[in-house]
Amino acid sequence: MVRIDPLILRARRLRLRRIVPQAVSRRVRRLWAVLRRQWRRSLQFRVVGITLSLSAALVLAFSYTVASLISNGVLQNRIDQTTVNVGAGAAYATQELTGFTQLDDPSLPTAANKIAVTLQAKLSNVAAEVVMLRRAGNLNVSWPKLKNADIMDSPQVNRMRSLVTGLKPGTYQQIATLDIGDGPKKYLVMGTPVALGSEPLELYYIVPLQAEDELIQFTGVVVTGTGIALVALLALIAAMMTRLVVTPVRVAARTAQRLSAGLLDQRMVVRGEDDLARLAAAFNQMAANLQRQIVRLEEMSRLQRRFTSDVSHELRTPLTTVRMAADLLFSSRDEFEPAAARSAELLQAELDRFEGLLTDLLEISRFDAGFAALDAEPTDLVPIVRRVTGQLESLAERCKVELKVVVPDEEVIAEVDPRRVERVLRNLVGNAVEHGEAKPVVVTLAADGSAVAVTVRDHGVGLKPGEEKLVFNRFWRADPSRARQTGGTGLGLSISLEDARLHGGWLEAWGAPGKGAQFRLTLPARNGDRLVSSPLRLVPDDARADEAALIGETP
Amino acid sequence: MDRMRARVLVVDDDPALAEMLGIVLRSEGFLPSFVADGERALAAFRDTRPDIVLLDLMLPGMSGIDVCRSIRAESGVPIVMLTAKSDTVDVVLGLESGADDYVMKPFKPKELVARMRARLRRGEDVAPELLTIGPPGNQITIDVPAHTVMRDGDEVKLTPLEFDLLVALARKPRQVFTREVLLEQVWGYRHAADTRLVNVHVQRLRAKIEPDPEKPEIILTVRGVGYKAGTG
After folding, report:
1. What is the distance between the alpha carbons of residues A473 and B94, in angstroms, rounded to a whole number?
2. Of B20, B58, B110, the CB nearest to A325
3. CA distance linking residue B14 with residue B21, whole number of Å
4. Does residue A533 sit at the B interface (CB-CB below 8 Å)?
5. Cβ contact A198:A27 at 8 Å
6. What CA–CA distance (Å, rounded) separates B20 from B10?
7. B85–A312: do the CB atoms touch at under 8 Å?
8. What is chain B's percent helix, strand, coil content, to nearest 5?
9. Average pLDDT over residues B123-146
10. Which of A389, A390, A452, A431 lies closest to A517 in space, CA to CA?
11. Cβ contacts (< 8 Å) between B113 and chain A: which residues?
């Protein structure tokens, strides 16, 4: 077997491709792509395509069978008739030639000619030819004298002639295209040997098959035409039938799209009682159920918001009174006894906490109700970071924590809600300072093309494994027994996480016992973009180095 | 005006809060009077002729918004809303119905008093001053000591706050004022506050002085910065 180098094959393919004009190949490819797309997307196209190919194959097989049956029948008829003629002709010729024993008898040609003419006259079809041949030595003679005398020397009938002149006597036949003087035509040639002494004469009947040929061709045209019409009709029927089914399905798809786009009133038209009508009815029922559910949820959400708003008012009014009373007591605490004065101070301080808790609770219930809205605008984050650290400077001093800020020289613009970002950062930095154990707290801001990030690192007690998820739980505390300094509400990180999510951002924590903790806020630079990575690492470099050294890897 | 004994009308349905407000206000030198429901608020307002109104937004009978609207219909007296709602819609609705400023519950007494004093701090400029702004053919004239604004020979009724806002803009016609600067100059806020106060009041002012408030020519918006007075 010859193995063809794949490279050569590829070169051939390339050459072929170059031969086909570029524009044509592009058009063909485009058409192919369109067809493939239609095949994938349109049920109707697929059904019509399958019907078309299956019915075409069926019709092809059927019409081939019919055409060959008809043509065989017609030919057989003529062959049978001619066989009878050949038999009779041979018998007649044998009888007429009984006196002759020598092929070179001078009266033989006249007799042979007479036989040929007589036989021809007996035929119903005048156009048919009868040929008698005698062949011996140099003599190659045929009777009667034909327009095209050497017709039987044509290579087309060679094989039959050799059979006739062969050893086995009998009648042989062949269909051949011959030219007997009026152009090439199809003929049925039948031949048989006529005994004459030691060597036979050859007797041939040449019967034109023009009528049969025309009939066969006509049959072919009719069968082909009928087949094509049938296939086209089947395709049309298939297209119409699928259309009948596909149209409601398409309507259903469109209605479903509208429904999911929020047009809850969309329904399908139910006509009749068939399967499609049942589909439409079921669809409508589903849509109605969905609509009812959605309306109910919306109503619940509205009630929840209303409740939040009402609770807000109902709690805030008495709190205002208490607040003012406490303020009044606090400002005149110098006139009180020590116990009462201290009580006034405690009242004042705890009211601040209470107020903070109330504010946070309301905030988180607003998130829960899905009522929180993002007011994103292009904002420079550098001043926000500086403002937050500035505000917390006094707390840091009280905790003896050094606050370091690392920000880029240029401005860091992102589409964020500045109020929320400031709240998140105040919370993160405040927590870091509180848990910083008098060690430095580092706030880092960085940006890349698609995201901005702030990390807040402290070197306090750190987080135990698993706690980096727990810290975002509501009212979670690292150590319940631990004394609290500023008394956060326990909701700060939960709210921060919600704020980050509202931006489509991330808020994550890392921590290791004894190594401190790091919180990372990552926000997309453009509102609505999806985050894929953060410009800053969650695990600080020094901790990575420690871990790598522990495992024995280079960082 | 006796500024040491400014009269205050407190419209609030919560008796404890009203009483506490009374204690605080009296200690700060105000002369408070009280009304507990919206329907009697207007009558009480007519009786007491207060220098400033403290108005709770949620009231039985008539809503604070309606009270605010009806007081504003007959007087330019400063109105400070007491609101427990931080939802955008409520604050904006209150400001649009005519309130000058708002204080969010729970507030600190000092905060409230500061807001009230800012609204009462008036009549200090007595030097005769006549300002004209607006494009030619559409000018308005402001007589600062007389507190009057004239357009086409007719007087335009402005509340004191709207008047202050207009004067602040008109005194420096070519300067663009940021919302924060206006909050400080007109409302007396030291720190950044709710810039919606400025937006709403500029809209109210435009509705009164602009021939077509949709296409303002006297108070122009400078996109991304703030506002400025239009000149020829």
Report:
1. 37
2. B20
3. 10
4. no
5. no
6. 11
7. yes
8. 40, 20, 40
9. 78
10. A431
11. none
Return d(Cα A471, Cα A430) in angstroms, integer: 14
Element (H, E) at A503: none
Q: How many CA within 13 A on the CB side of residue A429?
A: 29
Q: Do B106 and A355 touch (CB under 8 A)?
A: yes
Tokens coding A234: 């089947």
Give the length of chain A.
555
What pLDDT shows up at residue A191?
Answer: 84
Which strand (E) or helix (H) includes residue B53?
Answer: strand B52-56
> Number of Cβ pairs closer than 8 Å across A and B?
53
Q: Is B197 within 8 Å of B101 (Cβ atoms)?
A: yes
Residue A552: band (very low, low, confident or very high) from pLDDT cuts 50, 70, 90: very low
Q: Which of B20, B27, B84 sits opposite A316 (nearest CB)?
A: B84
Q: How far is A319 from chain B (nearest CA, A)?
A: 6
Q: How far is CA A502 from CA A174, A454, A496, A498, in A?
A: 92, 17, 10, 6
Residue in B20, B85, B109 closest to A309 by CB: B85
Nearest chain A Cα distance for residue B54, angstroms:
14
Percent above pLDDT 90 for chain A: 20
H or E segment and range at residue A22: helix A22-41
Kindly tell me if the per-residue pLDDT of A483 is higher than 70: no
Q: Is the pLDDT of residue A437 over 80?
A: yes
* pLDDT in the model for residue A212: 82
Residues 6+ apart with CB under 8 A from A221: none
Residue B38 and residue B63 in contact, taking contact as beta carbons nearer than 8 Å: yes
pLDDT at B124 over 90: no
Q: Give just the sign of the alpha carbon dihedral A478, A481, A482, A488.
A: positive
The Cα B182–Cα B168 span in angstroms is 8
pLDDT of residue A5: 57
Does the complex come out with an ipTM higher than 0.85?
no
pLDDT for A447 beyond 50: yes
Lowest mean pLDDT among A70-84, A382-396, A460-474, A483-497: A483-497
Is A309 near chain B, with CB under 8 Å? yes
Q: Which of A462, A472, A488, A464 is nearest to A540 (CA)?
A: A462
pLDDT at site A136:
46
Which of residues A123 and A286 earns the better pLDDT score?
A286
pLDDT at A21 over 70: no
Residues of B near A (CB-CB distance < 8 A)?
14, 16-17, 20-21, 23-24, 27, 58, 82, 84-87, 105-110
The model scores a pTM over 0.95:
no
Structure-block tokens of residue B199 = 């937006």
Neighbours of A335 (CB within 10 A): 8
For the ranges A41-55, A109-123, A387-401, the lowest mean pLDDT is seen at A109-123
Check B17 against A320: CB less than 8 A apart.
Answer: yes
Can you tell me the distance from the alpha carbon of A325 to that of A342, in angstroms, rounded to the nearest whole number? 15
pLDDT over threshold 80, residue B219? yes
Preferred mutation among B57, B87, B90, B196 to probe A, highest tally of A CBs within 10 A = B87
Question: A191 forms bridges with which residues in the sheet?
Answer: A172, A204
Give the amino acid at A206. I
Q: How confident is the model at residue A501 (pLDDT cuts 50, 70, 90)?
A: very high
